[in-house]
Structure formats: C-alpha cells, structure tokens
Design a protein that fits this description.
The protein is mainly alpha-helical. The chain has 20 helices and no strands. The two termini are 34 Å apart.
C-alpha cells in the first residue's frame, strides 16, 4: 500500500505539472501534504515523524536553493555590468549565423564543464554563456537544455560521478573497475551527444534560426528586455571588463577545484562584484532587488521539492516502490533483467531520486538477478548508463530545477522536449553495450 501511495503521489505531481494545472511549488507542497496526511491518519507515522522527514528533505536541498539564489545574483550582476555583451559579441563572431556550430559549442562546453561530475556547476558554466547566443540566433531554450542534459548524462558516468560511485559501493568494487567495464558504452554516448547537437542544430536552422532570423520565440521577449545592454540605465562598467572577466573565471574554477560549498563561492563572488562595480548601499540594494524575483521563485520551487523528497524518501516509501517493482518481474524473464531495467530506466528516473534508485532499487534487483544467474555488474551497468541519460530531466533531481531556472524554461516544457529523445539515447547505449560485449544475456 505504501508503494501504491508513492506511485500515486508521483503520477499526480507529474500530471499537475504537464497539464499546467498549477505551478511546481503548489504541486510539490500540496500533493506531498496530502500524502503525509494519509500516512498520519492511517497510523503509519506520527505527525512528529512526518515533520522530521520533511525537515530532512528540505535540509537535503537547501544548499541547492542557496546556490541558485546567489548564482542568479552573481550572473545578473555580470549581465548588468555588460560583461556578457562583449563575450556574446566575441562568440557571435566565431559562430556567426552558424546555428549548428552554436549547438555543437553547447555540447562541448557541457562535456568539459561536467568533468567534475557536478550537475549544478555544469549548468552554471554552460547556460549563462550560451543562452544569450541562442537568443541572438533565435534558437529555442528547450533545445539548449536538451543538448546540455544529453552531454551531461553521458559524462556523468565518470568514476568520480555520483551514480557510478554509488553502484560500485553496492557491488563492493572500486569505481574505476566499474567504469572501465562501461567505458565503451560511454564512448558511444559521447558520439550520440555530439550527433544530438548536430541534429537539433539542423532542426533549429530549418525552423529559420540564424543571425537575421525574424522568429519570435515564446518566453524570450521578457528575458530579452532584462538582458538588454545596460548602457542606457547607467549600470554598465566597460572599464572594469577585464576585472569582471577574471573574477568570473576565478569563480568558475573555484566551483571545480575548491572543496567548499558551491553556494558560498557565489556568495563571495557576489560580495566582491558588488563592492567593486557598485559601491554604496543604495545602489547595491537596487541591484539585489532587481534580481530577487527569479531567484526566489526558483529557490522556493527547490525547497518545495525538498518537502516532496522528504515525504517519499525519508519515509522509505521509495524503497517499498523499488521492492514492488522487483516483485513484478516474471520468472521466465529473469535472465533478461539487465535489458528490462535498461529499457525502463528513463521512466523510472522520473520517480526515483539518485539515492533511492541505486541504494534502494539496485540491491533488490541484484538479488532478483542472482536467482537467475545474472551477473550483478551487468545489472548495475545498465542501471547506471541508461538512468544517467535522464538524470537532469527528472523532477526529483534538484539540479534539474537549477537548469530550467537558468534557461527560463518550465519543467513541463523541459520534460516534453527531452523525454522521448533521451529515452532513445539510453536504448541506443543499451544496444551498444550488447553489441560491444559489455553486456551478455
């Protein structure tokens, strides 16, 4: 019954979001509250226990919310001072009206940015740099996100990436050992990511995107007004361009190499940027207020998602869901377990957070596979590779909301654009694993 309640909760949230019935904050908090009340009224948990679960869930995402607030403020300051205008002009000289080139640049930047395995830092490196270019070329922001998350999904297979480390710990082997086994599938995924960029760049070009395009992209008008050159409102600081560029590079490098919370790095970045560019409390307050709206809107969504994760994950409902799915495996299909779980990984990613997927579902499925002589490593590899493809389209992954917030895309539009393409990418990687001998049945 707990598993069924969990599935009903997730399906309801997805329906509310995709049908545009309500905003994500209301969907996450409202549906999660109903689920929590059901658990309390049925005597499954007490009110105090549910309160603790919710607190733990919010605690797990509060750093992401803080990261979003201060990263939006930092990049907003850099937009106000006019730094991005000069960078965009330089990029546009390279790309020109080459829409496919812009798409490929997105893919390459995302791959390089994701070498540290951090989804949030990759979004922060890629999206602020490329979104203005996409606006200039009249390319859709949903395409930017699709290319970005495809590249991130295949790069997230590195041995220091969270999913690979989690699976290796469940298997009791070194992460490097597991990575070497799945490396051929990752290489195929990298090729597919590049093909994705070329294909969708071509699609955008056929739509009429380009330097002289007259396309009007829904949702761009307001964003463009916010991103207009700041020379008219007196906020531009052309004489400080070199300082601002160097300071931005320092912040990005610190995200990758300095082992302190990412949100603290942006806090420091904002402090220095404000003090140097806009001395005086009145002007600094004006700048902060001008970026408060979008920052708080997405931060509240992330915190609301924390309530949802607390209710389902900390109450062990997700583990019950995993057990229920494993029990539904027909005996005659046991030896095909890696293929089955590989095909279903993308839909399951929308329901299971990373920890519940690998620490809850993976051990159960390994146990099921052992009954049919299935190599545990094969089960783990299919779950890691195929699931990773869809990591950053899942509404139960906090970094997803950081990405859509930076790109100015609604969660429903992101899922609609990416879901079937990403599912196809995961299946191609699965087939590659069979052809290359990584997996056997």
């Amino acid at each position: 019954m707990l598993a069924m309640l969990g599935f009903a909760t997730i399906v309801m949230i997805i329906v509310l979001l995709l049908r545009n019935i309500t905003v994500p904050v209301i969907a996450f908090i409202g549906v999660s509250t109903v689920t929590a009340l059901i658990l309390v009224l049925t005597g499954t948990y007490s009110i105090n226990e549910m309160g603790e679960f919710i607190a733990e869930g919010v605690k797990g995402v509060h750093s992401t919310a803080a990261l979003f607030i201060f990263s939006v403020l930092f990049f907003g300051i850099m937009t106000d001072v006019g730094m991005f205008d000069r960078i965009i002009n330089a990029l546009m000289k390279r790309v020109g009206n080459n829409v496919v080139g812009g798409a490929l640049m997105t893919c390459i930047i995302a791959m390089i940015g994701h070498l540290d395995g951090g989804g949030a830092s990759t979004f922060l490196i890629t999206l602020p740099a490329m979104l203005p270019v996409y606006k200039k070329l009249k390319m859709r922001p949903t395409t930017l996100l699709l290319i970005c998350v495809t590249a991130m999904g295949v790069m997230n297979l590195l041995p220091w990436g969270g999913p690979t480390m989690r699976s290796a710990s469940v298997l009791g082997i070194d992460a490097n050992v597991l990575w070497m086994k799945l490396l051929p599938m990752q290489l195929v995924g990298i090729v597919i990511a590049l093909i994705t960029a070329i294909f969708w760049g071509t699609v955008e070009k056929k739509r009429g995107a380009g330097e002289n395009s007259t396309l009007i992209i829904e949702g761009y008008e307001d964003t463009e007004e916010m991103a207009e050159t700041t020379a008219d409102n007196g906020l531009a600081r052309p004489k400080l361009f070199v300082f601002n560029l160097i300071w931005t590079l320092i912040i990005i490098l610190a995200l990758v190499f300095v082992k302190v919370p990412s949100y603290y790095i942006f806090m420091v970045g904002c402090v220095v940027a404000l003090l140097v560019n806009y001395p005086g409390a009145k002007l600094q307050g004006k700048i902060i207020k001008s970026h408060a709206g979008p920052a708080l809107t997405m931060a509240s969504t992330i915190l609301a998602a924390g309530v949802f994760l607390g209710v389902l994950e900390d109450s062990q409902i997700m583990n019950h869901m995993a057990t229920m799915l494993a029990s539904m495996m027909p005996q005659s299909m046991g030896r095909f377990l890696p293929l089955i779980i590989g095909v279903l990984s993308v839909p399951l990613t929308l329901m299971f957070c990373t920890d519940s997927y690998f620490y809850g579902l993976l051990p159960v499925l390994i146990g099921v596979g052992n009954q049919f002589g299935v190599d545990p490593a094969h089960t783990a590899i299919t779950m890691v590779v195929c699931r990773n493809c869809a990591t950053f389209i899942s509404p139960v992954v906090p970094a997803t909301f950081l990405g859509i917030g930076l790109a100015g895309v609604e969660i429903k539009a992101h899922i609609k654009t990416c879901f079937f393409w990403i599912w196809g990418v995961s299946i191609v990687c699965l087939i590659a694993g069979l052809v290359l001998g990584v997996l056997t049945i």
